[in-house]
Amino acid sequence: MQPRQPALRHSFTGVIDGAAGAPAALPSAVDFRQVRYTYPEAATPALDQIDVQLPEGELIVVVGPSGAGKSTLLRLVNGLAPHFSGGHLQGSLRVLGLDPVVATPRLMSREVGFVFQDPENQFVMDRVEDEIAFALENAGMARQEMRIRVEETLDLLDLAPLRGRRLDMLSGGERQRVAIAAALALRPRILVLDEPTSQLDPKSAEDVLAALVRLNTDLGLTVLLAEHRLERVLPYADRVLYLPQEGAPRLDTPRALLGDEPAATTIPVALSPPLVRLAKTLGWEPLPLTVKEGLAWSRQLRVPTARGAQPPVAADTQPILSTHNLHAGYGDCPVLHGTDFAVRGGEIVVLLGRNGSGKTTLLKSLVGLIRPQRGEVRLQGVSIKGKDVADICRQVGYLPQDPNQLLFADTVAEEMAITLRNHGYDPRGYDLPIAPQTLLERLGLAHKAHAYPRDMSVGERQRAALAAILVTRPQALLLDEPTRGLDYAAKARLRSLLEEWRGEGMGIVIVTHDVELAAEVADRVVLMSQGEIIADGDPYTILGSSPLFASQVARLFPGTGWLTVEDALDYFRGQTHAPYATDDYPDEGA
Amino acid sequence: MSIPRDFARGIAPGPNRSYAPPPIHAAAWGTWLAAVVVVLAVTRNPLYLLFTLTWIGWATLLVNRIAQNAAPGADTLGLPPVQFSPLTFGLVVVTLSALFNGLNVHVGTHVLFRLPRGWPLIGGPITAEALLYGALNGLALTGLFAAFVLLNRVVPVRNLVRLAPRAFYPVAVVVTIAVTFVPATVRQFASIREAQAIRGHRVRGMRSWLPLMLPLLIGGMERALQLAEAMMARGFAAGDEQPQSTLWVRAALILGMVALLAGMLLHLVWRMPVWGPVLLLVGALLIGGAVWRMGQGQTYTVYRPTAWRVQDSVICGGALLTALAFLVELPGLARTSALYYPYPALTWPQLDLGMGLSTWGLLPPVFVLLWSLAKQDGPANGADVSDVSEQ
Q1: Can you tell me the distance from the alpha carbon of A321 to that of A546, in angstroms, rounded to the nearest whole number?
Q2: Phi and psi dihedrals of A359, rounded to 5?
Q3: Strand partners, B155
Q4: Interface contact A160, partner B, CB < 8 A
Q5: Among A207, A219, A279, A548, which residue's Cβ finds the most Cβ atoms within 10 Å?
Q6: Cβ within 8 Å, pair A129-B76
């Protein structure tokens, strides 16, 4: 049976010869000319006035706020839009001289490799080697050629030792490298990646980015990469394509785009990494993009040598949630080994640690989803033994990694009503812990009360899930990787919500790999390793001294105890004399 | 993209990257399984059943040994974990089957005890014959289960679907995906159940399943769409470039099916000894030819086809002999000894040497596995899981 093709309208225009603009030094890999793309049944175009030429052989990072059309732009490059999604494309688009609409994604797959956000959802086979060979088998490649291609690809991504492994037994970073290898097997000249590190911890993300840089520098592969966490990718980018929410996109070098030019064409301060924000405020020129470049400036500054440790928040008050000699795990596999942990009202505790260190297991144990093998969990000083998860969750809100698993109703308001009914409340009654409308207003979702939750943006969906669990007004809130997939604006909004709730006396526990979030909100940081708590203290001591979990500012000013841009600026604003230790400013080329 | 020669030079196989071809071809395993099914379907002779179960158990033990030797790291073996061991299955099924048959069938001369006549269904004499026959049925079921578990462990789904005719390649890929989708769906369901529990959800009636099933359904569809998009991006046959099957091929398919149907009717209903089989043959040939012709349009290659070797022929030969011995009367073999029936009075099962030996036709895989194990124990061979898991 023929697959049903999506409704497709394509206003074809030929390549505009002699179009405005001098030819680039490098030939264009992707050439957008006045491209406008509208999804089916959408009132406004997802992309408009796209008129950029992406040079071949460069590593280009696509940045912009959520909803600016980054994923759509990437999907145009190999023809998935409009072939898969339908819609209306206007203008001219050439990828290595081909028109992806005419060529179809099937043929474009030989020129453009595509890697999606979540590797798990793109695997067809169950083993590493077979997954890489899949595209080659489809292309009908001769067996000998196929063997060579698979071996080369395994070596390129350093996957040879994993070749026979089952995909579901690989770590997140390894899986994403397999996805990249699978996309590279057909030897495309362009590799397109849609937020490939958003699901990964810092170490795995580093591995994936290192592999991409190697492919770009060693093989001259054109890499087109969408990413929210700019601090991760900017050091490697040759150019940045900035897609603003409104207006024309701009392609330039990272320094030029982050520079102090009119806001319409530069990346807003809010979207910049902490290092860039600090550098711009302190007037460092040329703008440092890596901590190494930043250190050339920061070392010239007079800074305090140490900062006193912060007293723990209300250490004498009774914890809302605590564990005592907790041993827990999955089946016969123990994960937590005698963990003692507590969170009190009015504090934010951040749990950090490698993948598999037991952070999520601890969170699940706190709400009774995993029962202790030994030891106990106490809620308000009373053991939760024998209590139902539903009863515990009336007092403890828990947001899992994927908020989609919570959402199934037709509207956000209905999601809240369902939780209330589950707990025996009448959603229209007057004795509710908090008025649903008030909660939605505080979450910034009042206008979305009747929207379908799964149609909303990632940040909005997360807040809708928060609405569904906070409507019982729990005393404690547990969040598992809450910044995953969020852009800077959504992250800032979440941060301010957390601070608000902390002010109201809620005890909050956050599991995250996002050290910048930890630096900004944590009252206490707990480091876990192999199911044990190896450090528990104030963030200035722990994040300031950890090489793996230090924030960018902590790396710039080691020993000061500063973690955030605000920490550093607070100090410099209070200085009446010149902050630089010597009269010599760092070299221009630093 | 040009790839430097350094990478090409790096393909010399090292100790932990060598590829060992699977010792047994998937088709040979399939034939062996078919023979096991035939034996277990035909016989209730406890001796033949025990022979067959012993061969299956021996093969299973060897597969486990090879897997353990290959990578002493339990879950990293590459073999899917067994959810329910055949031994546990056997204990449960044999007991239940004996009890069920014993309580429901009140025939036989060796009465163990009597239940009051007034008890519906189970009232009456409980006989040793009925208990034994139930247990034998349970043994046969256990053998089937163990054989399928073994095949599931040693033959990945992709190797099985590669046995499908070329014309059905897209269907075979879809089957592979469907199989890999199952564990993902199970994991997703567990996460959704947890996620709903933390919203205070409790499973009470039918309606309370809605919060579990809806996200599962929506999530499943979202994953399916993402996978479809990913496959399209990787050049999976979208269908638009496949040559359409010609009128002749379609006509041959339809005629073949009509001939098959007519042949079956003539052979089974009207008992026509010549025209029935002839029409069946013509139908099979027409369908086979049409499928072969349709397969010509598929352009795909197999990355690592498994070579057919002598041991595969031996396995198939042995399996065919065993199946034949239990299906048709062969000279010198007392096939009737397979049809053991304990009613109306318990008798010792008859052991025909020829029939007993014919079950040895299921043994060649055991010899091949023993040989693989011996090779694996040798100093030259490192820990390569593919020996078993890649079959």
Answers
A1: 27
A2: -65, -50
A3: none
A4: yes
A5: A279
A6: no
Packing angle of the helix pair B210-233, B169-197 (nearest 10 deg): 140
Q: Phi-psi category of B375—alpha, beta or left, where left has phi over 0 and alpha has psi -120 to 50?
A: alpha
Q: Which residues of chain B are within 8 Å of residue A116 when distances are taken between CB atoms?
A: 226, 229-230
* Cβ-based contacts of A468 with chain B (< 8 Å): 199
Distance CA A343, CA A349 (A): 7
Contacts of B12 in chain A (CB under 8 A): none
Structure tokens at B145: 């289960």
Q: How far apart are CA B218 and CA A116, in angstroms?
A: 19
- The per-residue pLDDT of chain B, averaged, comes to 80
C-alpha pair distances (Å), B287 with each of A2, B92, B165, B271, B283? 22, 43, 12, 24, 6
B234–A405: do the CB atoms touch at under 8 Å? no
What letters, b where the CB count within 10 A reaches 16 and e where it falls short, cover B145-171?
bbbebbbebbbbbbbbbbeeebbbbbe
Instruction: Give the tens place of pLDDT for each residue, A288-342.
Output: 888 888 998 888 887 777 655 555 555 568 899 999 999 998 877 788 999 999 9
Angle between helices B275-295 and B247-264 (to 10 degrees): 150
Give the closest-approach CA distance of A470 to chain B in angstroms: 9
Chain A positions touching B173 (Cβ under 8 A) are: 124
For residue A278, give how far its alpha carbon lies from the nearest alpha carbon of chain B (Å). 39
B51: nearest Cα among B367, B360, B370: B360
Report pLDDT digits (tens) over A198-222: 767 777 788 888 889 988 998 899 9
Q: Which of residues 309-368 of A touch B (CB under 8 A)?
A: 364, 367
Tokens of residue A129, six digits: 């080697």
- The pLDDT-based confidence of A273 (bands split at 50, 70, 90) is confident
Of B16, B158, B215, the CB nearest to A125: B158
Residue of A78, A142, A405 lying closest to B233 (CB–CB): A78
Query: Average pLDDT for residues A143-167, to the nearest whole number?
Result: 88
Q: Do B195 and A400 touch (CB under 8 A)?
A: yes
CB contact under 8 A, A364 and B194: yes
What interhelical angle do A172-184 and A143-156 show, nearest 10?
Answer: 140
pLDDT digit string, tens, across residues A534-558: 999 888 888 877 777 888 888 888 8
